[in-house]
Amino acid sequence: MKLVVVSAGLSVPSSTRLLGDRLAAATVRRAGADADVEVDVEVVELRDLAVEIAHNFTNGFPGRELAAAIDAVTSADGLIVVTPVFSASYSGLFKSFFDVMSGGDKDVLAGKPVLIAATGGSGRHSLVLEHALRPLFAYLRAVVVPTGVYAASEDWGAEGLAERVERAAGELAGLMVGLATGPRGSGAGAGAVTGAGGRFEVIPFAQQLAALRP
């Protein structure tokens, strides 16, 4: 399976990229431990695509690296998207990338599992996940996991952040595995197991998530 991390961090090193890497590592670990599934990770650094994103707005055509990034995101089995907080919302670079990728097609991420995350200097901006990021990906018809992860400067090294990372990663891994073994995979359907007589028994999604939590 393929997991793509989209990071809108601007600095090097970047706390935004660091959070994306932690979430990816936890998702890979949970998918392997809970479902024995191997996950490959690819990272898309938006700062490296800033010029091509700007050119796409003016000429309507993606450059080679931007086109490769868009293909990686649209073909992924799951996404982790991480942005720094600018003016109490996602960064302009972050929004511009998804505007270019969708190109007016709001179904471009339809049904794709997405974990939303953000970094900021203060915990006061943690609601950016709910008032900005979640509505954006709901509009693109993605399946956003229940737990978003926000990391303020004081959160690094704190137990609370580690717990949120693990919980969100478990939810994303569960969705990725469930969809991969569903109609697009083996045909069993997400959240279904084979019961007596070859019939399928539907397991409620809340029960599946509860089983993934540490």
Structure description:
With 214 residues, this protein is an alpha/beta fold. The chain has one domain (2-180): Flavodoxin domain (Rossmann fold, 3-Layer(aba) Sandwich). It has seven helices and nine strands; from the N terminus they run βαβααββαβαββαββα. The chain has helices at residues 15-35, 50-59, 64-75, 92-102, 128-139, 159-180, 205-212, and strands at residues 2-7, 40-45, 78-86, 89-90, 113-120, 143-144, 149-152, 192-194, 200-202. The strands form two sheets. Strands 1, 2, 3, 4, 5, 6 and 7 form a seven-stranded mixed sheet that branches.
Task: Itemize the secondary structure elements and their pairings.
Elements: E1 2-7, H1 15-35, E2 40-45, H2 50-59, H3 64-75, E3 78-86, E4 89-90, H4 92-102, E5 113-120, H5 128-139, E6 143-144, E7 149-152, H6 159-180, E8 192-194, E9 200-202, H7 205-212
